[in-house]
User: Fold this.
Amino acid sequence: QRSPANPIYDPVVQRKAQIALREKGYQSLAGGNGTGLSMPQRLLAARLGWATEIGVKTETGRRPYRYILDIADVTLMIAIEVDGNSHRGHVARERDARRDALLASKGWRGLRYTNHQGLAGLESTVREILRVVSSITSRPRPATT
Assistant:
């Protein structure tokens, strides 16, 4: 719910935040909560060639009923989250930890990166993800009878 006391809903504060982020090199940080992909998410997804905004049912019987993954390889069950500043607070980190634990319990391997890593560190982030993919795909598979 929107709290009138929360300064982020003040148009002046919003504009200052936009200017500050653009000065840091972010062209567009729209993203999260159903607003579409942010620029770092789009760049990373395009570089990997992976699907975006993949829904995973939580099956907890209570909200949230599903999580939307920023970027994912559904075959390998690797979920990539590209987090903006809203994920830095204590409450957000706890929420992210619960989400990561639930996804892990369903067999997903979660990787989290910051918007900065998705922009300025794009190539090193891609290399790190591909190392994870390689470690998963090079594991010996159990014999089936």
Observations:
- The chain has a mean pLDDT of 81.
